[in-house]
């Protein structure tokens, strides 16, 4: 990842940066450009967004590429997850501001892009959990897996027809095969 600037930024200075068409994350006080998605990433993101919105429309917001203000290593951290879900319990339906998500969402989804590794996103998943996110899904389009990270137990990797069910998302069911098929990344 390239840094936009080596200048150390405050949270306020980060949000005052000009919009130059590049999605930025605040990491260790630095503005870091987010990797540009490719076909597999975009297809998985769109498909999962559709599935989460269908399930959660009356429960909360499922949104792509929405910056979220968190804390990491006692510093402000503003990641831009590929997808997030935040319930109306955590962020009321009436909250309508054109700014970063001000609370830790229940779910963050990161899709491994070319040039990224599972190990890198495992570390990021740990940071999300420490910051108050309740679940992190890391999707690997090469291995055709979804790994779920929890705050209170080891991660679980789901393959093929392993059904993902979680009390946090009552009624939402998904298998990796369903996701990758609906994203048109594997043959039916």
From TrEMBL:
One of its GO terms (molecular function) is endonuclease activity. Residues 11-175 form the Putative restriction endonuclease domain. It holds the Pfam family Uma2. It comes from the Bacteria. The keyword Transport does not apply. Keywords: Endonuclease, Hydrolase, Nuclease. InterPro entries: Nuclease_put_TT1808, Restrct_endonuc-II-like, Uma2. This is Uma2 family endonuclease. It comes from Gloeobacter morelensis MG652769. The lineage of its organism: Bacteria, Bacillati, Cyanobacteriota, Cyanophyceae, Gloeobacterales.
